[in-house]
Amino acid sequence: MKKKVLIVDDAPEIVEILEDLIESAGYQAFSSPDAEKALEMIPHNRPDLILLDLLLPRMSGAEFARKMKVDESTKTIPIIIVSVLKKDDRKNEGLEKVSDDYIEKPFEPKDLLNHVKRFLA
Q1: SS3 assignment, position 121
Q2: pLDDT < 70 stretches in the chain
Q3: Can you tell me whether residue 85 is helix, strand or coil?
Q4: What is the distance between the alpha carbons of residues 33 and 86, in angstroms, rounded to a whole number?
Q5: What is the pLDDT of residue 90?
Q6: What is residue 92's predicted lDDT score, i.e. its pLDDT?
Q7: What pTM was estimated for this model as a whole?
C-alpha cells in the first residue's frame, strides 16, 4: 500500500506542484485548502506525512500543527512546514516543537522530495 501525504495549502498552483511531485515519487497525495477541512479529513484518511503551509485562511498552519501534536491519535504524524516565511520565524513562533521539518518556498523539487523520503522510508 502506498504511503499517503496530506498537503494543506490554499494555493491551488502549489497544491498541484506538490501533488505531482509526491505522486511521481510513488506516494499517494491528497489535499485540503484549509486546516479545518484537513482536521476533518484525517480520521477518515490518515496520512503518513503532512506538508503544511503556515499562511492559511481561518486557522493558521501553526494552530493546526499544535492541535495535531496534542491529540493522541495524530501526534506521531510527521509535519513538514512548507512556507514563504523564513526558517528563523519557525523558532519565533515556537514551531520547532510542533513540526518535524521546515522547507522555505520557493523550494527545489529534489530537495523537497529528499525531506519527504526521510520521513517515509
Answers
A1: coil
A2: 88-94
A3: coil
A4: 22
A5: 52
A6: 53
A7: 0.95
Instruction: Kindly list the distances between the CA atom of residue 46 and the CA atoms of 65, 76, 77, 120, in Å, as whole numbers in the listed order.
Output: 15, 11, 9, 14
Query: Which single residue is written with the C-alpha cell 490554499?
Result: 10
Nearest to 48 by CA among 83, 17, 22, 13: 22
Question: 119 Cβ partners below 8 Å, 6+ apart?
Answer: 48, 49, 78, 80, 100, 101
Residue 13 burial by Cβ neighbours in a 10 Å radius (0-12, 13-18, 19+): exposed
Q: Which domain holds residue 31?
A: 4-120
Give the CATH number, domain containing residue 15. 3.40.50.2300
Return the number of other C-beta atoms located less than 10 Å from residue 56's C-beta: 22
* Exposed / middle / buried, residue 60 (Cβ in 10 Å: 0-12, 13-18, 19+): middle
